[in-house]
Write a structure and sequence with these properties.
The complex is a heterodimer. By secondary structure, chain A is an all-alpha fold. In chain A, about 80% of the residues lie in helices and about 0% in strands. Chain B folds into 2 domains: about 230 residues, P-loop containing nucleotide triphosphate hydrolases (Rossmann fold, 3-Layer(aba) Sandwich), CATH 3.40.50; about 100 residues, Beta Barrel (OB fold (Dihydrolipoamide Acetyltransferase, E2P)). In chain B, about 25% of the residues lie in helices and about 40% in strands. In chain B, helix 3 crosses helix 4. The chains are: A mainly alpha, B alpha+beta.
């Protein structure tokens, strides 16, 4: 692997990560802060309750992480250690396709007084901290299930059988053999859930939970740059320890495979295990899929029955697809070189820490913070070119595309890296020896070989952009593009439920199709 | 190839390696793991650029002191990888025709017939056995009519039963195509059986270096060092004192292949050592292994532990039997 490629990859990552951080940094430095107290004083003094917001964000994330690990690990265990019906994995992963703001909005609407469930059961208003914990837990549990499930799938039956033949009880086998293998995956997935919860903006906004990201969004929307900068810095502060912890655990998730690997055979679940699984399933699928989809249908049906005017969703659908395809293409192009460099360096036993850290740092930045950083950077860098320059950058959609690429480069990078890493590089060498030039090698050998991985990367990127809200709201507004997520948010806040329902159903359908295609292509990758 | 040297970071891979391959010649690079033989092969292919020295193919200098003058694609070579590296998404015919500048169905069909895989044109590599995959890899490498064919451990992934027939096929096919061959292997039987010349490499602190370059018979019968003797087959090495063509050692007086003087190390191959039962003998059978045509007898003798061969047709002594070791034929003396 040429060092020129390596440096180019690093420069690319530095640009992606650095631009929003530099924007935020400049904004903080521009403020007339006390040189002796630095940014700590403004953090404590701007507005009221920055420490309280920080504490609430951390508390919410910790509750969500604990809940997601509990539910997700149980679902993974049931999937790989007990006999489950065909399609179980896909079914339990469905909440992953649901945007958090949509789940929060539909759950709040349906369970509260006046809602189709709330009225029937006489429930109080379903908002606030506890409800946000439930919604975010249900949405992040499938993430834990995926990561812990991969670890369980790679667990060697021989290791556990060896312990059994040496006289260990089932309980001891679990704690001595199985748990040490699962522990890094459980820890890592918990931190991913934690990062998701810290970064989430839609669900907490809908459920009226005053946390950093929600207040940060309001500050940006109100063009209060000073407050936004300080809240952004506080959000960043909250993320640093979580990111560092996840970085430390990331490498431990993968175990070396045993020779003649054989998987642990699933067994029939006991009656108590079945009841517990049914309970978890009702919670995860009920809150994550059934209630949201049913509520969207109820909204549309009510609008229909009252003969309300519907705004056709086709324009928003077209905008969503166009924006998502363009954003995915750009993200794919930007992720390609780092993925290629990291895959080859790992194959050659080189250290790839800096590049991977940079990539994963981009995914750790909350969408609101990222959008704010890009806005501040654009404001700063367009200053010498006059007032119109910033408007052109924002209005052209360039900032929106950069926002998507930065936000989702890690999600596209991961399957690309796996695909490149699994490729037999000797096939490329073989093609070179047979006289094929670089383009022919790319077209006839590399691309067909990694096509399933590239397809998975594209679908993951597409799905993420379709659902993305804060980047779309903050960076896409000036472009005139109205995506489905924008439409859902806008119509929900205007209490135009029937329009929000139509847009939401289109959004869910699009997300589910791309998620189903991802599962299908992943099997080929 | 002139005074080639290469390092991977601080680790030496090749140290002043120098040899040539004549037109139509079959040369084997024999050596243990880590001696740099695969690096050497990759350097010839252009997949590694050696830091010092030069490589010439057909009179063209392709690399010189770390500078690539002719890229991999233009060197006119064929390479069969150890794990074949077939393109999994292409059919057998597409794999074989890949390196041809224009479609030549007749050439592809001819090569398929030559390597014995006619009728498998539309199969994908995953639908082939290991032996068939190797034949496809060989046909693919030969299709563009390379002047030099490189083979990287061609029998590493083939079971023992197939090895002989594939070896014969390989020799016949490359002779038919008129290509020179440079084969990397740690399999001494394949190196000795197939090649016209064997180059033995040994790992050193500065990288692998050539320790002998000779015909297979020369390598086997007259190795330059004890290491070459061990790499080229079973070897029993004992010390002795030579005087002309006679040498005194633990087995008494033996005849030397070449006259020598003074202390020497004697090389005896297992087939030269015969065990003869004798209740007054100074050797004891410790262990017996059946190897088809022969029994391997591990014996304790005045020269130490050694393996002697006993044809299966002869009467087998019991473990613990006493006897004498008789050395058949002249022996080779190495410097001590």
């Amino acid at each position: 692997m040429s060092s020129a490629y390596r440096w180019a990859g690093l420069a690319l990552i530095a640009l992606l990560v650095g631009t929003p951080l530099v924007g935020l940094g400049f904004s903080l430095l521009d403020r007339p802060v006390d040189p002796f107290t630095g940014v700590v004083a403004p953090l404590l003094s701007v507005g009221v309750g920055v420490p309280a917001l920080l504490a609430r964000s951390v508390a919410l994330s910790v509750f969500v992480a604990v809940g997601a690990v509990t539910l997700g690990t149980w679902l993974a265990w049931v999937e790989y250690r007990t006999r489950v019906p065909r399609g179980w994995g896909l079914l339990t992963l469905l909440p992953l396709a649901m945007p958090s703001y949509l789940v929060a909005a539909t759950v709040r609407s349906s369970l509260s007084p006046g809602g189709w469930i709330g009225d029937a059961l006489g429930l109080p208003h379903m908002t606030g901290f506890a409800m946000a914990v439930v919604v975010l837990t249900v949405i992040t549990a499938p993430l834990v299930q995926l990561i812990v499930g991969a670890s369980l799938r790679n667990a060697s039956a021989a290791e556990e059988e060896a312990a059994l033949t040496l006289g260990a009880s089932g309980r001891r086998v679990f704690w001595d053999i199985t748990w040490p293998r699962l522990r890094p995956a459980v820890g890592f997935s918990g931190l991913i859930a934690l990062l998701y919860a810290v970064s989430d903006f839609g669900a907490v906004a809908v459920l009226d939970v005053p946390v950093l990201t929600w207040r940060l969004y309001l500050a940006v929307e109100n063009q209060d740059v000073a407050r936004a900068s300080v809240l952004g810095a506080a959000t960043l502060l909250a993320l640093v320890p979580v990111f560092l912890a996840s970085r430390a655990l990331r490498g431990g998730v993968q175990h070396a495979g045993a020779a003649n690997f054989r998987r642990v055979q699933p067994v029939s679940a006991s009656a108590s295990e079945r009841w517990m699984t049914v309970g978890v399933l009702v919670l995860v699928l009920g809150v994550g899929v059934v209630i949201p989809v049913s509520t969207l249908l109820v909204w549309v049906a009510e609008g229909w029955s009252r003969s309300l005017n519907f705004v056709t969703p086709w324009g928003a659908l077209r905008d969503t697809v166009v924006v998502a395809v363009m954003g995915t293409a750009l993200t794919l192009v930007l992720a390609w070189l780092p993925a290629w460099v990291v895959a080859n360096d790992q194959r050659e036993g080189r250290h790839t820490g800096a590049m991977e850290d940079g990539i994963y740092l981009t995914s750790a930045l909350p969408g609101v913070l990222l959008a704010l950083g890009l806005i501040l950077a654009a404001l700063r860098f367009t200053l010498p070119f006059g007032d119109r320059a910033y408007g052109i950058v924002l209005g052209s959609g360039a900032l929106l595309m950069m926002g998507y690429a930065t936000r989702f480069v890690a999600e596209v990078f991961a399957p690309l890296r796996v695909s490149f890493g699994a490729m037999d590089v000797r096939q490329l060498e073989s093609a070179a020896v047979l006289g094929a030039g670089p383009f022919k090698r790319f077209r006839t050998v590399l691309l067909p070989t990694v096509a399933p991985g590239v397809m998975v990367a594209c679908l993951i990127g597409f799905n993420a952009i379709v659902k993305e809200l804060p980047v779309t709201l903050l960076l896409g507004g000036a472009t005139g593009v109205k995506t489905l997520s924008f439409r859902v948010w806008d119509r929900y806040n205007e209490s135009l439920w029937h329009d929000a329902g139509v847009a939401g159903l289109c959004l869910v359908t699009l997300a589910l199709i791309s998620a189903a295609l991802t599962v299908r292509w992943r099997q080929n990758a | 190839m002139v005074h080639l040297g290469h390092r991977y970071g601080e680790v030496g891979a090749l140290d002043d390696v120098c040899f040539d391959v004549g037109s139509g010649e079959f040369v084997a690079l024999l050596g243990p793991s880590g001696c740099g033989k695969t690096t050497l092969l990759r350097a010839v292919a252009g997949l590694v650029t050696p830091r010092v020295g030069s490589i010439s193919i057909d009179g063209r200098t392709v690399t010189e002191d770390g500078v690539v003058r002719v890229g991999t694609a233009d060197r006119g070579i064929g390479l069969v990888f150890q794990d074949y590296a077939l393109f999994p998404h292409m059919t057998v015919a597409e794999n074989i025709g890949y390196g041809l500048p224009t479609a030549e169905p007749a050439r592809v069909a001819g090569l398929m017939a030559l390597v014995g895989i006619a009728g498998l044109e539309e199969r994908k590599p995953a639908e082939l056995s290991g032996g068939q995959q190797q034949r496809v890899a060989l046909a693919r490498a030969l299709a563009p009519r390379p002047s030099l064919l490189l083979l990287d451990e061609p029998f590493a992934n083939v079971d023992a039963g197939l090895r002989d027939s594939l070896g014969r096929m390989l020799k016949r096919v490359v002779a038919d195509q008129g290509a020179s061959v440079l084969m990397v292997t740690h399999d001494q039987e394949a190196a000795l059986a197939l090649s016209d010349r064997v180059i033995v490499l040994e790992p050193g602190s500065a990288g692998g270096r050539v320790i002998q370059d000779a015909s297979p018979i020369e390598i086997y019968k007259r190795p330059s060092t004890a290491r070459v003797a061990q790499l080229s087959g079973g070897a029993v090495l004992i010390s002795g004192v030579a005087s002309g063509t006679v040498v005194q050692c633990a087995f008494g007086e033996l005849t030397l292949i070449e006259p020598r003087e003074g202390p020497v190390e004697l090389l005896m191959r297992p087939e030269q050592l015969h065990f003869e039962e004798d209740s007054n003998g100074d050797a004891t059978v410790d262990e017996i292994q059946f190897h088809g045509a022969h029994h391997h007898l591990r014996c304790t003798s005045p020269a130490g532990l050694l393996d002697a061969l006993l044809p299966t047709s002869e009467v087998l002594p019991a473990v613990g039997s006493r006897g004498r070791i008789r050395v058949v034929g002249p022996v080779w003396a190495l410097n001590r």
